[in-house]
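Submission sheet (multi-component)
Chains listed below:
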Amino acid sequence: MLGMKTLGWSLLLTGFALLFPNAAQSSCPSGNSLFDMALPSNIDFGTWESSGTIATETTFCVASADTRSNNPRPSDSVCPYQISVEDFNGGAGFLLYLNGNTAAAADERLLAEISHKDIYQGDIYELLQHNVQETQTHDGMFKGCQGSPDNSYLKVQIDASEFTNVQPGSYSGTFQVNGLGGVGLATADSEVFSVSVTVASNDPNVQISRIDNIVLGSFNGTADMTADEAFCAYTESGGYRLTITAPNQDVSGNFFLAGDNGDLLPFQVEFSQSVTSPAFVTVGSSSIIGLTGSTLLDCGNADNAVFRVSASEQDLRAASSGNYVETITILMEPE
Amino acid sequence: MLVSSGLGASTVFAATQGSLDSTSTGSSDITITINDSVKITDVDDVAFPDYGASDTGAVNQGDAFCVYRNGGDGYSITASNPSGSEFALVGATDGDVLQYTVALSESDDASSASAISYDTAVNFTSGSVFVDCSDEADGTNTAFDIRFAEQELRDSSTQDYTGTLQLLLSPI
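Outcome: structure written.
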């Protein structure tokens, strides 16, 4: 592309730059002004797992010229352009938000750095500030970059320190590139791109497995009904806690089976972290903490925890005839 | 006697195993089937005093009893005479029959009972969810009343009369 520029306007550059250090580096006195920025590609850093500082580039064509022609004549020339980038979500910096929530707390935001360069004009990244025009002025390309590689590069970087105290999860931000170009830097254009990264948790892995359904059977009028379900609770290191919930659980933590007749049948859930010598504790709305799991992923092809469900004889007697079902969900978290 | 009948199998769901991650979630479906269940208890014998020349008018006497129905749901009672085909007592000496009428009430107050037909199911709204009707003030929630018409009594020969009133309780 540099070879396309004429010797004449290259010499003119020297005097022009002395008068306007940040202004045009090319002659672009008049003409059928063109300024057109292509859409930068969105950036997805993938998952950050103690990965240190991360950075990547997105490229796009910036056309800035005194002609709109697809076939510029030798007398046509490219024009200068400048860009700025703003946080499209209104942030004071280039922010990525947990789950895209712009009201996120401080530990749910990541601050990115965005730099810009033109590979045909100095090829030096300039660190941008939110909504502040860059100081470098670049010459653009003719319409559509004429088959040449993209001239404009945006580099997005997130320093390792940003990841130190943020919550794990999916972060995303949206940014708008605002540019001025064409004859007299008088034509504006803007494009929007997004940046996303998933912050992995540093917590040790856990896994619950070997869990089955519980069929209490049919109630025929006498005695409580009880069944146990043993399962495997694996922890990579340390202990774990369990939270057991169900769709029909009330705010007090009481569990209910839902009947196909629309009725609710109370039942109790208990848990023990020992299968061989069970010591059951009643499960409610609170997590069960301070538990010890197996360090074997399959618990040695055995079970090391058990929960018990039971319905009292009187509650069963008071229930209308029908089939009752409830799904209990067991959330295992490391401690 | 506790009577029950099945309603069919529950739908089978698949348990969910947790994945290996910083948190792991498993799930288990719990199913149970409640069958129809009814029970009639606290039924007492009814003994009428002697009826003689100085007595007048019809006589009646009742008994309150307990009806359990799972879920407090509806039930029916069918009254009959297991030794015959009508509501009647049989004389101990000559086998004469002494006919009577029966009334049922969905309360423990026999005096508010309504007459029923022989061997015909009569529906009621709600039984007790307690097998022993312990939620009721007197442990009873239903009553029957037996009535002998004056003329029926005067038509009867002198002797003792006995019989059995059978109450069949069914879920509805």
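Remark: Confidence is low (pLDDT under 50) at residues 1-25 of chain A.
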